[in-house]
Amino acid sequence: GQNIDQPTEMTATEGAIVQINCTYQTSGxxxxxxxxxxxxxxxTFLSYNVLDGLEEKGRFSSFLSRSKGYSYLLLKELQMxxxxxxxxxxxxxxxxxxxxxxxxxxxxx
Amino acid sequence: xxxxxxxxSRDICQRGxxxxxxxxxxSQVTMMFWYRQQPGQSxxxxxxxxxxxxxxxxxxxxxxxxxxxRPNLTFSTLTVSNMSPEDSSIYLCSVEGEDGVYEQxxxxxxxxxxx
Lengths: 109, 115
What we know:
Mean pLDDT of chain B: 93
Strand content of chain A: over 45%
Mean pLDDT of chain A: 95
Low-confidence stretches of chain A: none
Number of helices of chain B: 0
Largest sheet of chain B: 7 strands, mixed
Oligomer: heterodimer
Number of helices of chain A: 0
Helix content of chain B: under 10%
Radius of gyration of chain A: 13 Å
Number of strands of chain B: 11
Largest interface: A-B, 18 and 17 residues
Helix content of chain A: under 10%
Largest sheet of chain A: 6 strands, mixed
Strand content of chain B: over 45%
């Protein structure tokens, strides 16, 4: 079966760095996506990895290791507005997007 | 990026009734997707809607329960039929970007409560 695992909840302090991990087992791999979802809102696209390595976009970076079936999202200089759920999603070999259950991040002052 | 609107934003419906959710995109797109997000859970793909052909449903979802229309390249509807409390969920439509990454852009969602 298809499986994507993320921690359910994480907490961090404003200004700190947090790493959200994602491991996956899917039928093929055509890219990994990270989405941010604030409570009561739709998910918004954050990052995309299809090759191994680190992709940096401002305060957010995403890493991928295809051989390990592993990715992480790194958030630096945390702000209160970063409190949200972060969804890891993998596109499988049918180009279907499989979502993890999401990690709820709470940032405290 | 695409701008997507959905109607209604939320509704409370009685068991046994049906609700049609509308999704409008500000540009022409080939595929539109319908997802369900049950409380505390992640997104599950219901079906993919292509203009001019029948929707493709994922395992566990059937056309009789979730009929979909796709009359043109900017619009789609999802009907939740013969509703039960288990259908209480957020329903989101989405489209893919066409810049080679194919990230998905989501509508604001329709929050459905079935009593």
